[in-house]
Amino acid sequence: MSIDGRDLKFPKYVWEAPVRIWHWVMALAMVVLCVTGYFIGSPLPSVPGEASDSYLMGYMRFAHFAAAYVFTVMLLMRAYWAIVGNKFSREMFLVPLYVFQPSWWRSFFRVLGHYLFIRRENDWHYGHNQLAMAAMFGMYLLGSVFMIVTGFALYGEGTGMGSWQHSLFSSWVIPLFGQSQDVHTYHHLGMWYLVWFTIVHLYFVIREDITSGLTVVSSMIGGWRDIKN
Ligand code: HEM
Ligand code: HEM
Question: What average pLDDT does the structure give for the chain?
């Protein structure tokens, strides 16, 4: 294969249906988690009317926890798919041992150069480019696992000692961070880490869709990567 990938054969089926469905369900769950999580951290100063008629924060927390279960179960199912799915479904889960290969860094800096407007053309890939793959692992995957671990540690405080959430998470995560408020703070900061990933992700998928000459956004809808006419 040439270094710029111009000799790759297209169209190529890249994102299988479970990966595509997973992607959009997770994106939706994350929006619900960010909006409700934001209000859990910064509740509205007042809600009009009789206090016992209102359950606003209760519904917010319910939506947060329901989306949290969807988020967690879907990530576990996605990990299973990385084992049985095609090789592109594994890219996000690859522990970045590739950083020990000099050729990986050469490709990485070529992509970075394109992202920084130093190189006009980007290299072609079937799946993720080097920078995307590292971000998917380091930002999205590790960030999501962090949110699940800290989230269930906070949840276990409500379900109480003896519950699986408390035994599996709260019992060690809360002492590790210090106390409950510290876990709240790091869980909150984790949200901004994932929001940052998402903004950069949206910028690049749309930018690459316009400039790379390959299908990008539509590849996460139909599954195929192709050369644009
Ligand atoms: C993308 C994933 C998630 C995001 C962006 C997110 C965001 C947030 C934010 C911003 C808060 C407020 C923290 C504070 O300032 O006190 C919060 C609270 C909380 N989150 Fe999450 N969260 C996520 C995943 C989860 C998961 C997987 C669980 C597991 C059940 C969870 C459970 C909780 C709990 C129990 C609280 C505290 C609720 C309360 O004190 O009333 N979160 N979340
Ligand atoms: C909360 C919002 C979002 C999150 C957290 C997110 C996360 C991700 C993740 C983790 C992947 C890697 C999938 C894998 O390797 O299995 C991915 C790929 C992708 N996402 Fe998103 N996504 C979000 C929203 C969107 C939106 C709104 C679009 C479309 C405009 C989009 C378009 C894509 C595309 C096209 C890919 C494949 C990229 C490639 O070809 O290299 N995403 N996204």
Answer: 96
